[in-house]
Amino acid sequence: MTADVAVETTPEIPLWNDPDRPVAARVDALIGAMTLQEKIAQLYGVWVGASANGGEVAPHQHDMEEAVDLDALLPAGLGQLTRPFGTAPVDPALGALSLLRTQSRITSANRFGIPAVAHEECLAGFAAWGATAYPVPLSWGATFDPDVVRRMATAIGRDMRSVGIHQGLAPVLDVVRDARWGRVEETIGEDPYLVGTIGTAYVQGLESAGIVATLKHFVGYSASRAGRNLAPSPMGARERADVLLPPFEMAIREGGARSVMHSYTDTDGVPAAADENLLTGLLRDTWGFDGTVVADYFGIAFLKTLHGVAGDWAEAAGAALKAGVDVELPTVKTFGAPLAEAVADGRVPEPVIDRALRRVLGQKAMLGLLDPDWSPVPPALEGIDLDDPEALRGRIDLDRPENRELAREIAEKAVVLLTNDGTLPLARPRRIALVGPNATEATAVLGCYSFPQHVGVQHPDVPVGIDLPTLRDTLAAEFPDADITVARGTGVDDGDLSGTGEAVDAAREADLVIAVLGDRAGLFGRGTSGEGCDAESLALPGAQQHLLDALLDSGTPVVTVLLAGRPYALGRAVAESAAIVQSFFPGVAGTRAIAGVLSGRTNPSGRLPVSVPRGPGSQPTTYLGARLAQVSEVSNIDPTPAFGFGHGLTYTAFAWSDLTVDAREAPTDGEFTLALTVRNTGERSGTEVVQLYLHDPVASVVQPVQRLVGYTRVPLEPGEARRVRVTVPADVASFTGRAGHRIVEPGDLQLRLAASSTDARLTATVTLTGPERQVDHTRRFHAAFTQDPAAQV
């Protein structure tokens, strides 16, 4: 049916194609001219794969979906194209040509000429064959450097836009609650402020390049019971409000994110995909979000198959639409014929469809997809002869030198030195025993959402597409005079002990052992880290701890290097390793970054975004525990970490001194200003990371013993000092009170200036005065740092 409304047009173009008219007017006119089928078609995607020869895309078949007939669908239009580059290995130029031709087909087939939004994964770089694989988000967190993450996201966004992509499914803003969860590598860390600031920087970079950033997973996915993927989340309302929601608040308000992806989980029996209070009441009515809400893949169908809150596909579609989901991804399932039937029989009101459609078309209008001069030719193919597809092969470089340089900078800033007895940096080692399953594995630097690990493993005959030097390669270049003996020892998770003797023999013949351990990223049990690769405990996978202990018994100093997606308990190595170097899947430049730290070419400045446990079974815990979560005399389990959140060593030393506080009292709507001097007392340049933690000794509801409320990196030359000033608004002390509102309470607070959550250097006790004050999502999020010009001492 067609709505019976008068549609205003100009003699040249319809109103909806007129870029000089307000977006809302254009969208309303277009909706008024659409049939029900045409409306619904804008609310779903189709999972496709670009043609390796530059032809049109082909529908991707998945075991959770039925075959899709594009010829039957396209006359009504199409909302999204799912992962045209990220489904199979395709040369980027031919993939761009394939997408171009498909968009031309889509616009020609529907009577309004509306193209689809093309989306891709971009969690650790553009997930396309041949694109730069950057460090995973856990490494972003380890940098404590929003600026470098913003620059990375801008570069990723530019590459995506250059080939015709509009939307990126990142960043993940889930806060780690249990490190056994397989998707820890995809997160930024265990602290909501760190996740919020780093994640917001990523959003700002992606959006600045014209890509729609998609926040995920909203909300509670990471709080699953026992760290299992897709498990219920037993979080309470206060944990959700004070730990899990703040990163999303920040990324929407300060980052300008234009899309949100709902979580798979349920909270207290209500699945996120059907939670109207969450997706409409909080997200839109309270926070004012006006972008699109997209489904996590198959998440609407899961309302029937996994959650059991819908009896059929139509009921699932209606529940999701009513809650506030606008787009079904990755492909049409419930939003197709079942939704049309539900409208026809009165179960789903058509205005609910119009509400979602208004958001979808509004976004397409802002992307220029409704403009009369819109062209399917992406920037990278402009001005190029497209008649000979084979001549295009290799014309688009998604792994340019400037990309790799940026990947190197992030990888170097993300390496965390956990312990060091003085062995590092290495002088001129003569004999090195390089041992462990990740010593010669090129893909050991990649996370599960990198293209080679996510898609490439299904195409073993296709080259990986990017240069991935092994740690063996980079150590040989870093120490050209060293004799390096390689011994595998054991696999990542095969439990094989047969190589232990060879590894120990190599260790005894060497001056130094470098043990390279950790994870293999994969999906759904095909790895030890990644989506669906949850851990029963935080012991090193397989027989790696056995190998490590045998190396420690060899009598040769052992430097333990971890290429991993989560923190692991390291047993004796915490005390007995000569040094421990932690790296979280550091990307294409990762092994060079590690080699630089080992040699001293790079002074490490990374800090832990997640705590490293002392024992493999002391989970779930994060540093954000309340007093009852700390070690006590009434439990035999000690949750104290081996290395706390924020920990990291360098090859120089820093002195903190001269703390001043401008005023010890401030009203509950006021602020405090503190200052300290940080001096490099060592003999080489380095970077200190000043962290500010808040401790609220008496509150109306139980609080964490401390929580991060600010941080800044302070680079210093030898002998250089800087005066670091920080303004701390009372708002950062807010929390959700007993009535369910966020409040700032009067009373004493401790502001701890610290090198980590376990290493407070200077503490100021201050007092908030006056009445209790209620705040909301417009509160001040940040303690603001400034640094005076460097002064020589």
From TrEMBL:
The keyword Hydrolase applies. The keyword Hydrolase applies. It comes from the Bacteria. InterPro entries: Cellulose_deg_GH3 (IPR050288), Fn3-like (IPR026891), GH (IPR017853), Glyco_hydro_3_C (IPR002772), Glyco_hydro_3_C_sf (IPR036881), Glyco_hydro_3_N (IPR001764), Glyco_hydro_3_N_sf (IPR036962), Ig-like_fold (IPR013783). GO terms for molecular function: hydrolase activity. Residues 688-757 form the Fibronectin type III-like domain. Keywords: Hydrolase. It holds the Pfam family Glyco_hydro_3. Belongs to the glycosyl hydrolase 3 family. This is Glycoside hydrolase family 3 C-terminal domain-containing protein. The lineage of its organism: Bacteria, Bacillati, Actinomycetota, Actinomycetes, Kitasatosporales.
